[in-house]
Amino acid sequence: MPAIQPQPTITTLKEYEALPEDARAEVFDGQIYYMASPSRIHQALITNLITTFHTYIQKKNGDCEVFPAPFDVILSKNPLTIVQPDIMIVCDKDKLDEQRCNGAPDFIIEIVSPSNASDDYIKKAYYYKNYGVREYWIVDPKRKTITVNYFEGNIVSVQYLFDSTIKVNIYNDLYINFSEIADLLDI
Fold first, then answer.
1. pLDDT at 113
2. Is the pTM of this model over 0.90?
3. I want to staple 109 with a disulfide (CB 3.0 to 4.6 A). Which of 1, 87, 97, 171 is the partner?
4. Ordered DSSP codes for the chain
């Protein structure tokens, strides 16, 4: 999702919560960034991946929950850092309240929009690693690649093509066949 020019700083959660309800925004170190609406392919990828994760977790009677954007994640209250990952899995339910995830999710996927690729590859990778996300995938429909960062295992920036089957490292037996998703979406 493209980020628009930075806006004035927001230093408190109260200021963030006072934004208009329809505003799509993230905050990095108190600096707010508004986001544009996602594309059709972006949303289709989210739908397919969410379905895969949700089905897996239900079949395993797992304790984790999967969420699509927009759902706030507070990575830090000082400096205020709030993100809305495209997809996230949270296994520690104590981090969840009715409005958000308070702390790092276990697993995050961001789907790259052409206008803000550096946000996903550089800025978000930095924040997710430093705030304790265990695993972070970057799905790039234009390049037809998936970049896997398994921070917990010190595996960073391993790239796969859309014709790959990729292991989800936070689980012992979950693999995502991206060729099936790409064929289904005609990517």
1. 87
2. yes
3. 87
4. -PBPPP-SB--SHHHHHTS-TT--EEEETTEEEEBPPPPHHHHHHHHHHHHHHHHHHHHTT-S-EEEESS-EEEEEETTEEEE--SEEEE--GGGB-SSEEES--SEEEEE--GGGHHIIIIIHHHHHHHTT-SEEEEEETTTTEEEEEEGGGTEEEEEEETT-EEE-TTSSS-EEEHHHHHHHHT-
Which pLDDT does position 8 carry in this prediction?
A: 67
**Alpha carbon distances (Å) from 86 to 76, 147, 187:** 19, 15, 19
Give the tokens for residue 17.
């919560």
- Look at residue 87 in the predicted model and tell me its pLDDT: 98
- CB-based contacts of 22, cutoff 8 Å, min separation 6: none
**Could you tell me if 56 and 174 are in contact, meaning their C-beta atoms sit under 8 angstroms apart?**
yes
| Residues 141 and 42 sit within 8 Å (Cβ to Cβ) | yes
Position 3 scores a pLDDT of 53
Helix axes 40-59, 178-185, angle to 10 degrees: 140
Q: What pLDDT, on a 0 to 100 scale, did the predictor assign at position 23?
A: 86
Burial of 93 (0-12, 13-18, 19+ CB in 10 A): exposed
Residues of the chain with pLDDT under 70: 1-8
**Cα 65 to Cα 117: distance, rounded to the nearest angstrom:** 27
